[in-house]
Amino acid sequence: MKIACIQMNISLCSIQENLERALSLAEDAVSREAEMIVFPEVFSTGFCYSRIEDVAEPLSGPTLEALRTFSKEHDCIIAGSIIEGMERKDLTDPVIEKVLTKKTGFTEKKQSPSQYNLGFCIESGKLAGTHRKTHLYGPEKEHFVPGDRIAPIRLEKHGLTIGLIVCNELRYPEVARKLALEGADILVSAAEIPDFFGYPWRIISLARALENQLPHVACNRVGKDRYSTYLGGSFIADAWGSVLAEAGKEECVLVGEVDLEKAKETRGTTSIFGDRRPELY
């Protein structure tokens, strides 16, 4: 399968500008026969904390609708992350408010966040599945509700199961391992990694591939905003952790070909999972 990572610059809080750029780069990807397209973390807005309630979208919002239209037109898979907003009516439900307060640690005197960092996967125009980021980093904890479920996304037409990971979750090997144990065929991560963390990010991203014997598409952004400068360095690795394609520091469409059947054979010739001793862990 040919897979494209859209290593793009992101204009903070500018949904229309980012979406137009993303779709233009996606056109380049499908012209190069990419069957799966991966965007960076919160690619349509960046971490727009100052206007987060304004830019947050429901699943039926314009960004995912535009991606569904593109996916249907080109019969492709699209994955990435956006800022998801809860419906206002849900926030007035005392039961939901109690759950949010418990999950985030906010007291009743301080308003709890009402957004998720939402990973999504679209297949041929349909929303195949979502994943709300479970392990938040730094200021995210003040603006997002952490997800409470880790499970792979099973596609219908392509016979493929995707383990979707959002940025900081890569630092926790349990996330990728749970996805692998539950049948993921490939790891796909959407990231917004600043330059100071570039070296560790590359190491742990390759480790997640090798330790789970799964190909890994690691997609990062480039450019800079008021918070940081982003290094790019997106890559596509096979099930041995060998890099098949890698990007530099500039905006680009990185295309690589992953042999999914060979990846399955790799897992079949090793005993990593059979030799585990979870009773000791």
Could you name the key traits of this structure?
281 residues; alpha/beta; Nitrilase/N-carbamoyl-D-aminoacid amidohydrolase; six-stranded mixed β-sheet; 31% helix; globular
Structural overview:
The protein is of the alpha/beta class and about 280 residues long. The chain has a single domain, classed as Carbon-nitrogen hydrolase (Nitrilase/N-carbamoyl-D-aminoacid amidohydrolase). About 30% of the residues lie in helices and about 25% in strands. The strands form three sheets. The protein has a six-stranded mixed beta sheet with strand order 5-4-3-2-1-14. The longest helix has 17 residues, at about 15-30. The two termini are about 35 Å apart.
Largest sheet: 6 strands, mixed
Low-confidence stretches: none
CATH architectural category: 4-Layer Sandwich
The total strand number stands at 14
Cα separation of the termini: 36 Å
Strand order across the largest sheet: 5-4-3-2-1-14
User: What is the approximate shape?
Assistant: globular
Along the chain, the helix and strand elements come as EHEHHEHHEEHEEHEHEEEEEEH
CATH class: Alpha Beta
What percentage of residues falls in helices of 4 or more residues? 25-40%
